[in-house]
Amino acid sequence: MDKKVVVITGVSRGLGRAMLEEFAARGHTIAGCSRSEQSLTEIKAKHPGSNLFSALDVCDWKAVELWAAEVTEKFGAPALLVNNAALINRSAPLWELTPEEFSSVIDVNIKGVFNVLHAFLPAMILKGEGVIVNFSSGWGRSTSPEVAPYCATKWAIEGLTQALAQELPDGLAAVPLNPGIIDTEMLRSCFGDGAQSYPKPEAWARKAVPFLLSLNAGQNGQSLSVPSAQE
Predict the structure, then answer these.
(1) Which of 9, 154, 207, 209 is the residue whose CA sits 20 to 30 A from 28?
(2) What is the DSSP letter of 199?
């Protein structure tokens, strides 16, 4: 398979870190971001060379625009853009959450995705090809109690991505992707010890990354799930 430039948000832990390691093992070039400078220091030491890892908050649109400009100047437009960075609210009924807690989930999970799309799409459209994958969730297609803000954002990602798909020119694709249920810190915050019965991020990435690399313009607008999520 041809080597690709892959942009991933939220690479410091969980699914983002697992994808980073798997893409790197396959020889692809990664441009990743995270708010954790400490984690990025370790990542940079492990993956020197032609990769780019930047400390920034996807909620900061100016920082995202500068990051995208740096990425495209160094590598050109990405072949694959993965909007992975996300937050989940603490488990509680909606009326017990504070406005600040609600806003933080909305800001990262919806506004952050918009900021990244706004920054990278012009170069991808100019190139005339590329795949955008916005991580949704099983809770973007169903609901559960005590995670209403998170559900709201992932339902929004489904709608935003499908509308974007209708706007894109030929050659590009936008896909809302349910990664499945994986044993991450986010899942543990909801499931507690029960999260341990689900696949680890590293095992998930070994199936997810080839699936991501296989996506093309033919899947534009389709709501997809990582195959391992169905096993």
Answers:
(1) 154
(2) P
User: Tens digit of pLDDT for each residue in 155-168?
Assistant: 999 999 999 999 99
- Neighbouring C-alpha atoms within 13 Å toward the C-beta of 157: 37
- Which pLDDT value is given to residue 199? 74
**156: closest CA among 199, 113, 195, 110?**
110
Active-site choice (53, 67, 75, 150)? 150
pLDDT for 174 equals 98
- Over residues 61-67, the mean pLDDT reads 98
How is residue 176 written in tokens? 């809302």
3-state secondary structure of 19: helix
Q: pLDDT per residue over 112-157, tens digit each?
A: 999 999 999 999 999 999 999 999 999 999 999 999 999 999 999 9
Residue 231, pLDDT above cutoff 50: no
Cα(118)–Cα(122) distance, integer angstroms = 7
Residue with tokens 């050659």: 171
Burial class (CB in 10 A: 0-12, 13-18, 19+), 218: exposed
Counting other chains too, the contacts that 163-172 makes at CB distance below 8 Å and 24 or more residues apart are: 164/117, 164/132, 165/220, 165/221, 166/221, 168/125, 168/220, 169/125, 169/128, 170/217, 171/128, 171/129, 171/130, 171/217, 172/124, 172/125, 172/128, 172/129, 172/130, 172/131, 172/132, 172/217, 172/220
Contact 6, 28 (CB under 8 A): yes
